[in-house]
Amino acid sequence: MEIKRNILLNPGPATTTDTVKMAQVVPDICPREKEFANMMKGLREDLVRVVHGDERYTSVLFTGSGTINIDICLNSLLPAGKKILVVNNGAYSTRAVEICQYYGMPHIDLKSSVYDVPDLKDVERTLDENPDVALVYTTHHETGTGVLNPIREIGRMAHEHDAIFVCDTTSSLGMIPLDVVKDNVDFCMASAQKGLMAMTGLSFVIGREDIIRESKDYPKRSYYCNLYLQYDYFEKTGQMHFTPPVQTIYSTIQALKEYWAEGETEKFARHRRVFEAIHKGLAELGFRDVIRREIQSGLVVSVKYPDDENWDFDKVHDYCYDHGFTIYPGKISTTDTFRLCSLGAIDVKDIEAFFVVLKEALEKYNIKVVYND
Ligand SMILES: *Cc1c(COP(=O)(O)O)cnc(C)c1O
Question: Which side of the chain, N or C, has fewer Cβ within a 10 Å radius?
């Protein structure tokens, strides 16, 4: 079977291999069968290995997109009478703040520039001044800008202040180094379609089993999205509490086989060279990006719109899309940007092919890549 290969330069879902796509085509199975429970057991163990968790860590699977993890961790892991500190320098940490607002959970929104990493002195001072903070939260890689946050230091500060550290690693896990023990991460999370290069619909939280057990007695703020409830059901039955995304689980298991076969170091190096190729192609055409290179994750480039009056993102997007390449709008409210990402089963030659197409689009619409300042 021939499947058209599209190059997705959006920040996930990512381009997948045909073997991962085809892994979904399996005989019908009731997911309550032992065979399926055994598959999920192996998958849960593998996920802990991906982030180098030791025997203190476990993983819990959920049906849903990545945001479900943020919701679950925040609503499930806050003890009564305590507060959440969100270290917020971008759209995804802002999402965590909104979740706190929706549940009416006491929180501090420590907001800082989306163009930069947070100031650790501000984090430290906020923790000193608020001894009732029990959960520190931030985003590892802010996908909206491409900024990589200093999680190891933030995690250390959380622990020095007797708080747990929850980190949204949705757009970094499986693509850049993450070691939950060394990085002081108590809980991290992702969904199958990003770094693992599988399909949408499966999300997972990886974290400290003792803390999950402790959270049994924390206030219950959601039924479907409670971490302890799902964990406990897995432990007792080997199954998800409610219907799992069966086909996505098959494809994720295949994706993990391919992850180990490619090798962590090799995979990280491939994403990095794709990122470098994106920068090279952009520089050759005269495009500028908006984040200092030293703090970029190596996975997302936020590109400034050129000032030429003929520039039209939608037209350029549609031309590229028609030729098999998907580019993505930006997520910075104060600057007009688009994004090119190095996620997925792609390599340098795909990026070179993309820039041929992008150049054609610019020529077709008579767009000059110029900036007025
Ligand atoms: C993709 C992503 C999510 C999840 O987004 P969904 O649309 O729910 O899949 C969460 N956090 C970060 C940092 C992400 O990049």
Answer: C
